[in-house]
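Appendix B. One record, verbatim.
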Amino acid sequence: MKSNIIVIFGGSGDLAKRKLMPALCLLHSGNKLDKDFIILGVGRTKLDNESYRRSIGDGLSKYLSVNEVCNVNKENFLSRIHYLKMDPAKEQDYTLLKEAISALAGNVGKILYYLATPPSLYEQIPANLLKSALNTPESRIIVEKPFGYNLQSAGKMNDILRSAFAEKQIFRIDHFLGKETVQNILAFRFANGIFEPLWNRNYIDRVEITAVENMGIEDRGGFYEGAGALRDMVQNHLIQLLALVAMEPPVAFNEQEFRNEVVKVYRSLRPLTDEEISKNVVRGQYIASHRKDGIKINGYREEKSVAADSYTETFLAMKVNISNWRWEGVPFYIRTGKQMPTKVSEIIIHFRPTPHKLFNSSEGCPEQNQLVIRIQPNEGAVLKFDMKVPGSGFEVKQVPMAFTYDKLGGLPSGDAYSKLIEDCMNGEPVLFTRSDAVEASWNYFDPILRYWQENSDIPLYGYPAGTWGPPESDAIIEGGKCWTNPCKNLTDTDLYCEL
C-alpha cells in the first residue's frame, strides 16, 4: 500500500501549531486520514523529533477544547509527526527533503505540501520542488493567502505554481470558505424558494459585510507592515464573501460551475475611478487609548516591528458596486479592522422598506427588514421583521427569529481547516480559489493600491483602539445611514444581541 505524507513548510511556525496540527489531529480522531499517514514538519528552527512533538503536543492541549483532546488518540497522532531542519529557500536543501521523504514513507503515494510560510517563499518553494523532482503527479500543494501583493505579483506567482503543478493540484486556501455558515449562504439562496426570488435589486436595498477583531496585530508587525488591511482581509476573505452573496446560481454544484460563477462576480465589479477611490474608500489606523480599568492599549505605531511613521492601514471601509442585471444600483459596503470593540464577522442583507408606511414604532418609522448571517463568534442567522406590540393601537416593533448551530444538539459546525484539508486530500477543489479568480480580484483592487502609492496625501484617519473605526467611514453609506454595529459584549453564545 502506498503511504501518504503531509509536508508542512513552516512546520515550526505559529500557523502550524495553532491551526494545522489541531486540524490534522481532529481528522485523525475522525478516522479521516489514511492509517499509515506521516506528517513531516519542515523549518529553519533547530529541533529534533522529540522536541518538535513536545511542542506540537503543547499546542494541541492549548488550542483544542478539553472534549476534543479527550476524543483523539493524541499519543498515536504525535508518533506520526517528524521534523526536518532545512532552509526552504535553498535548492540544495531539497536533497535532505527527498531523503527524509524516502526514509519515512518508502514507496510514496500522495504527497501534500502545505505552505505555512511567509509569502516571500511562495515562489521559491514550488520552483525548488520542481528542480528537485518532488512535484509528483499525485502530489498536491496548499497555498495560504495572500495570493500575491498586487496584480503583477499574483500573475507571477500563478505562473510559478503552474510551472511545477497542474491547476488541479493547486489549492489556494481561504479558511473562511471552510466555515459552515459561509457555505450556508449558498443553501439560504439556492435551497429556499422564499429567499431566492427576493435576492436582487428589486428587494434588497444594500448589503453590509463586516469582519473585525478586538485585538491588534500581536507579534505580526513585520508581516502586517507589508500587507495592511486591504491585502490581509479585503482582497481575499471579504471579496469571497461578497461573491457568495452576489453570484448567480451555478448550473451544478461542482468545481467548474461554482468557481465559474465566482469569477463572473469579480469581473462584474465596477472599476473605481480615482475620484471614487478618494470618496468611497476610507483608511484608518488605531491609535493608543485606555480601557475602562485604566490600562493603556498601544497604538499601531507602538507595536513591535512597526515603523514610527507607518502609513499602513489597520482599518478599511469601502463601497463596491456590481454592474450586472441582478445587482445594478445596490451598494455593497465592506469593512475590516483591528482593535474594534468586539470580534465579529457577519453579512447583513438590508431589504427595501415597504412602499407605504401604515404603522409607527416607538422610534419613528418601522425599521427595514434584515437578514443577518453571522460567521463568528457564533455561527448562525437572524431574520429581523416587524410585529405589532400587544395592546391598544398599532405600534410595531422589530423582533428576531434566530438560528445557531450550537443549539442543534449533535450537529457541530466543525473546524474550517479540518474541512478544507480533508477536501484537498480527497481532491475536491470547490471551496478553493482558482488562479483566474485571484487575478480577477487583483484586477479590481490593484488601482486602489496604485492610487495610494501615487498620492501621498491620502488621509489615514486615526481611531482610538476599542472603537468602531474612524467616523468618516459612515460617510460612504448612502442616504445618511450608518454601519450596523453589534453590541460590544458579544459572546460565543450570542447571535442576536441588540443588532
